[in-house]
Amino acid sequence: MTPQDPGALYSHHLDVLRQRADQALARGGFDHLVIPSGTRHYQVFDDRDYPFAVNPNFKAWVPLTRVTDSWIVYTPGKRPQLVFLQPFDYWHVVPEAPSGWWVEHFDIHVIRTPEEALPLLPANPARCAILGEAQSALGGHVPNNPEAVIHYLDWHRAFKTPYEIALMRQAQQLAVRGHRAAEAAFRAGADEFSIHMAYCSAVGQDANDLPYGNIIALNEHGAVLHYTELGRSAPSPLRSFLIDAGASAHGYASDITRTYAAAGHDEFQAMIDAVDAAQQRMCAAVRAGFDYRQLHVDAHLALMGILKDFGVIKVSPEAALATGVSAAFFPHGIGHLIGLQVHDVAGFAASDAGGRIERPAGHPYLRLTRVLEPGMVVTIEPGVYFVDMLLDEVKKAGNAASVDWDRVEFFRPYGGIRIEDDVLCTGGAADNLTRPAFAAAN
Ligand code: GLY
Ligand code: MN
Ligand code: MN
User: Is 255 a pocket residue for ligand 1 (Cβ < 6 Å)?
Assistant: First the structure.
């Protein structure tokens, strides 16, 4: 096994989870940690289920993302239990019996119906911290999600174990395969839907597995931050392509964005290059002790410097930030924690006992306000966009003179630019998880 093999790292990961669970249960005054995998959700008045999303707290313990009506039970000092549903079912594929690097660490109880879990759960639900959604309730075992337990576990989930980092590196490699296929499809003139299909096919994942819906945006569509329409015909001419798409590896996410100019669109390509260079400097700023809120504000100034260089704004970056003009061009946060969820939990947490670190005034979409510490994985995703609705607000606020509207008209048909990598904070230099995956795929 190589050092990066998740199988070689799992036993340490489990030790960390057990220590965290011991502490969390002590904080909350409970004897057992009980985690349902979750159950299927059905469409209203219908028997069709939505793509299943397993409880993130469940997949933290076991690399299982497809199993429903199953349970983790952990009691401090004892081996963890997995109650695993393998139903008699000829309608669906029955989950395979558990196998792989992790099974030796669990006592596994295979059940054939969801109700058979009940006698395998701790006898007194009042002594259990049960983490899950309401519809996972079974008998008296109703998820109670005690705050003291959740605060503790969520806070510590920001610090990834080597096992988790190894899986997140795998998630980069998978996504990059898709990004390469998508760029090739764009260069060949494909429409958004076909680019999406090329991506899914190269990654081998679709809505059931991808950590979020692909954003595949040609031309002006790049200005819609969460554009998920997938047009069926390619616009003509094709000018630009923004793709924000990730992948999952045993339940861990990657979240990657790239922007491309069509051949001959040199000035837009130059702006992409400038944002890309600035983004790499921001990634290098990911280091222990640095306040992520400062990183966000610094990103505003760097991006406005680029817009000034390209003649789009006529005022200093500082003035654009102070007047809100910069928020019209960069209207989202610089990034977020990532891991078991693409927007991972506890981005605003002040401590493992609760409390909240507020966003800086005027930055309502920032998702992470903590000081960076080793083990955190964050995204760094600066962007500049030409969004009519927001540019109208600039005019209404009396700041029209800050902007060169002819330059806005020039760049509007390209939509926008976003570059996004996933970066590990270490005790030393930032470890960009994404860039090496692109370099290896060249
Ligand atoms: N793909 C969603 C995000 O970048 O946060
Ligand atoms: Mn992101
Ligand atoms: Mn993204």
Answer: yes
- Residue 344 near ligand 1, beta carbon < 6 Å: no
Regarding the beta carbon of 164 and ligand 1, being less than 6 Å apart is answered: no
Calpha distance 6→55 (Å, rounded): 21
| 5 has a pLDDT exceeding 90 | no
Q: What are the start-end ranges of the E strands in 331-411?
A: 377-380, 383-385
Distance from the CA of 245 to the center of ligand 2, in angstroms?
Answer: 9
| Ligand 3 center to 75 CA (angstroms) | 37
**HSE-up of residue 39 (Cα within 13 Å, Cβ side):** 12
Per-residue pLDDT tens digits for 204-229:
999 999 999 999 999 999 999 999 99
Please report the atom of ligand 1 found closest to the CA of residue 245.
1
- Phi–psi pair at 387, nearest 5 degrees: -105, 110
- Say if domain 162-441 classifies as CATH 3.90.230.10: yes
122-127 average pLDDT score? 98
Q: What is the mean pLDDT of residues 389-396?
A: 98
The Å distance, Cα 283 to ligand 2 centre, comes to 13
**Residue 95 in this model has a pLDDT that exceeds 90:** no
**Whole-number pLDDT of residue 357:** 97
Select 6-157's CATH number: 3.40.350.10, 3.40.50.720, 3.40.630.30, 3.40.50.300. 3.40.350.10
Domain boundaries, the chain: 6-157, 162-441
- Separation of alpha carbons 377 and 369, rounded Å: 14
pLDDT in tens, 239-275: 999 999 999 999 999 999 999 999 999 999 999 999 9
